[in-house]
Design goal:
- The chain starts with 9 loop residues before the first strand and ends in a 7-residue tail after the last helix.
- A three-stranded antiparallel beta sheet has the order 1-3-2.
- Helices cover 74% and strands 5% of the residues.
- Helix 3 crosses helix 6 and helix 6 packs across helix 8.
- The protein is mostly helical.
- The protein has two domains: 41 residues, Winged helix-like DNA-binding domain superfamily/Winged helix DNA-binding domain (Arc Repressor Mutant, subunit A, Orthogonal Bundle); 143 residues, GntR ligand-binding domain-like (Four Helix Bundle (Hemerythrin (Met), subunit A), Up-down Bundle), CATH 1.20.120.530.
């Protein structure tokens, strides 16, 4: 998730055991778990590699994530406390600083914490687990969206609208704000993918 291992990179059990100071049995069990979570691809007699998530799959991940997050934010709107709102407002203040300083990667890290905080407030553990897996699979594309020109400013406004809707304790309003935000994520990702597909210079 932090980019140490790249898509399609081979994962050698002996090397991983030395790197993490763990036994081969533990490493093998971890690779099995990562395979189940869609982060690693294991082949019989050929070992494991970091799984490459295609652009098509990344879009599908974001679409599924959007449906789950709309459910979760509805639950959060009915359960949110003043202390929860203070936490989210504090994150928004930090996000504004990162935008004003031109730091999209720092903003992106806070963005992830912001969404996870809403998941926690919503309290549906099954949804939290599924969203965590989807986030891990789509992480490489998260940075591609936030680096698009103008996206941090638009994203910040969308997050402000989500907090405003949560503060109103109205599930419909919270769901609508989250839907608008994640529609923006999907559309930005589509544009980024289309720009990569163009001949050099066409995406300027």
């Amino acid at each position: 998730m932090d980019g140490r291992f790249h898509p399609n990179e081979r994962l050698v059990e002996a090397d991983l055991a030395r790197m993490f100071g763990a036994g081969r049995t533990s490493i093998r069990a971890a690779l099995v778990r990562l395979d189940q979570e869609g982060l690693v691809h294991r082949e019989p007699h050929r070992g494991a590699r970091v799984r490459l998530v295609s652009e098509k799959e990344a879009l599908e991940i974001e679409e599924v994530r959007a449906a789950l997050e709309q459910l979760v934010v509805r639950l959060a709107a009915a359960r949110i406390t003043d202390a929860d709102l203070e936490d989210l407002q504090a994150m928004l203040d930090e996000m504004r600083r990162h935008v004003s300083q031109g730091d999209p990667l720092g903003y992106s890290e806070l963005n992830a914490r912001f969404h996870q905080r809403i998941w926690e407030v919503g309290g549906n553990q099954t949804a939290i687990n599924l969203l965590g897996t989807l986030k891990s699979q789509g992480l490489r594309f998260q940075y591609r969206t936030i680096l698009q020109p103008g996206r941090p400013h638009r994203s910040l406004r969308e997050h402000e609208a989500i907090v405003e809707a949560l503060a109103s304790r109205q599930p419909d309003a919270a769901e609508a704000a989250m839907r608008r935000h994640l529609r923006g994520v999907v559309e930005t990702l589509k544009a980024a993918i289309a720009r990569r597909a163009m001949p050099d210079g066409w995406g300027d």
